Here is the input.
Amino acid sequence: MDWGTDLWDQCDGIDKHTQSGLDLVERYIKFVKERTEVEQSYAKQLRSLSKKYAKRGSKEEQDCKFSNHASFQEILNELNDYAGQRELIAENMMTGICVELTKYLQDIKQERKTHLSDAKKAQQNLEGSFKQLESTKKRFAKEWAEADKATQQAEKIENDLNATRLDVEKAKQHSHARTHTAEECRNDYAAQLQKYNKEQNFFYYSEIPQIFNKLQDMDERRIRRLAEGYCQFSDMEKRVLPIISKCLEGISSAGVKINENQDSILFIEQLKSGFERPGDVEFEDYTQGIKPATSDSSLNPPKVRAKLWPFNKKHKISHAEKHMPPAAEDFSHLPPEQRKKRLQAKIDDITKELQKAQDQSEALEKMKGVYEQNPQMGDPSSLEPQISETAQNIGRLRGELTKYETWLSEAVGGEESSNNINNNTQHGVVTADQSPHIYTEFDDEFDDLEAPLGQCTALYTFEGNSEGTISITEGELLSIMEEDKGDGWMRVLRARGEEGYIPSSYVKHTS
Here is the structure.
């Protein structure tokens, strides 16, 4: 069964049916667009939510040392990655369904217009032929009537006794001419009728069926393409389900790995002072008389008990202590254990700043070397102010580091502190005593002065087909050059020098 055979007389119905099919495609495109807007709005709200509850500030960073606080931060990070996948779904639907179907719709509209135009033209040709047939038919009828009238008139004149022979001959000649004309019109009408029947047969059995079958083929292709679009609606979400599942698994893992006992131990370590509990208050026997005024005892025990930390106990002042800075700077106002922790944290912060300053110094030295080798790239002397400023900053940080190490040594006490500090220096501050001239040697090739922000590992393979993106493979170690700014993308550097953007949810931070 086909349209050309069974629907040969339903041109208007076919016109409405094919238009309805195109309207459905257009309606589906609009539906998917609104779905992408929902996804984008959902992802935006998720990102705002995770950003709102993310920890910020030194106090909150301190809280994140506890597993229950840290796990909540991991959940927020996973939720941010989850939002990235929702954005990816929206992007894929827009490009894979809306854009492609819109282009296909324009093509199929033009094809339908062409087929309907051919059908209309064929109909007009047949109608024109029929009008010509009617015209020849009317002319034949008119001429035949005139010929019959002329014949009757000739017979009447011939039978009239008063008519002359000339009148009779004239009437016969007129009748004969009319009859001849009528015969010619009859032959024209017969020829035109034969032509019209042939054209009508071609129109209904060949031309229109072919056009209607083409429209049927077009509509079936439209249905098949729309069905593929329906499947894409589901498939595009299925593709990111493994990553979404990993995000959800990460949220579950964040809850599972919480260790309440370890959090309690960490809290104790942070706040314990190391002092012994106060001893019993001695009985003061006033029956034996009032004790000398120089006695250390007090008539106001509550005030004595409230003073638990013996920071004002007199002791011999060493030469180093004569030059101690204000209490707030060396944390001497804190209990011993807390003081050591705060000093160590300060040393760690200064060490990080020192390392960053030394990295900057190294980069400037490299740039200076490149400028010296390639003057067209820049003036080496223009870097001198920055190099000088960086060197001064390094010197200041080294002084700060030495100062806090000395205080920590005094807080810990003895040779044990010196060993700990030496070990710490070997692992974290080894670059502090190096000469600033160690960076004069560098690689011959100078690709980028920008220092990486950290390292990450690719969780999945990504094909970077669009402009500005790069391809990565699962398990690959990458350098982070620019963090995710809320749009779901981050800039990374591959080991072989390629740099570009990748989805943030495709990697895991390692440092």
Remarks:
- The mean pLDDT is 81.
- The beta strands are 454-458, 477-482, 489-493, 499-503, 507-509.
- The first helix runs from residue 3 to 6.
- The first strand starts at residue 454 and ends at 458.
